[in-house]
Amino acid sequence: MELGLHGKNALVTGGTKGLGKAVCELLAQEGANIVAVSRHGDEGEALAAVLRKTYGVRAAGLACDLSGTDRQSAVSAAVDILGPLDILVNSAGIWPQAYVLDMEEADFRRTLDINLVSPFVLCRDFARHLDADSRTGKIVNVVSQAAFCGSTTGHAHYAASKAGLVAFTVSLARELAPRGINVNAVAPGIMDTPMIRAALETRMDYYCKRIPLGRVAEAEEVAYGVVFLCSNKADYLTGITLDATGGMLMR
């Protein structure tokens, strides 16, 4: 299936690990040019070199601390590298653990800052970038099944941040629909990524029992849904949250 992504310019946060890396690779396979955001520029450049060599696309890494002022310039820096952008994927996030009775306010605020405030900043700046030239585009925010189910394993701050991102995605989709900008979300369940791997190594049976399909997802399986929502095949979809949980939501 031709997805109409060849020559499109995409900015992907969290682009060097887990789901974000899988999204970058699949977008590049479809001929999209990539700026992969990570905290460490060398990781982004290493991935970009592979994408350039393997798929013949333009690609670059962008070092950016999404908890700081760097995020204010992420979109403009990506434009300087690739030119006008078409796609934004907010995949970066943190997954700290602490039960609420033991949780520090600073940790709660930091989780909201990275998982919710940063996507807001990038979405706003990306939408302004498109609107300045009356251009259309696609935004995909990575949320979580925890946004709908909550957390039982000490991740209430993470669940709250992702629930906020779901509501923000819907609100932004309503605002930007008249401008031809589609805004959607993908809700992964449990994936084998660096962020959660330590927990999987100690409690794999527990997590698998929560998944109707009976297994943890590979990042690429969820990335296909993200890339679909970036494509021209999703032009009539906006404000949705795609369930990519192996049946944990079924909503």
UniProtKB/TrEMBL annotation:
- Superkingdom as given in the UniProt entry: Bacteria
Q: Name the GO terms of the biological process aspect.
A: bile acid metabolic process
Keyword Oxidoreductase set for record = yes
Q: Which Gene3D superfamilies match?
A: NAD(P)-binding Rossmann-like Domain
InterPro entries hit by this protein: KR_dom, NAD(P)-bd_dom_sf, SDR_fam
- Write down the SUPFAM superfamilies for this protein, in alphabetical order: NAD(P)-binding Rossmann-fold domains
Q: Which Pfam families match?
A: adh_short_C2
- SMART domains recorded for this chain? PKS_KR (SM00822)
Q: Where is the Ketoreductase domain?
A: 8-193
GO molecular function, one example? Answer: oxidoreductase activity, acting on the CH-OH group of donors, NAD or NADP as acceptor
Keywords assigned by UniProt? Oxidoreductase
UniProt similarity note: Belongs to the short-chain dehydrogenases/reductases (SDR) family.
What is the protein name given in its UniProt record? Putative 3-oxoacyl-[acyl-carrier-protein] reductase
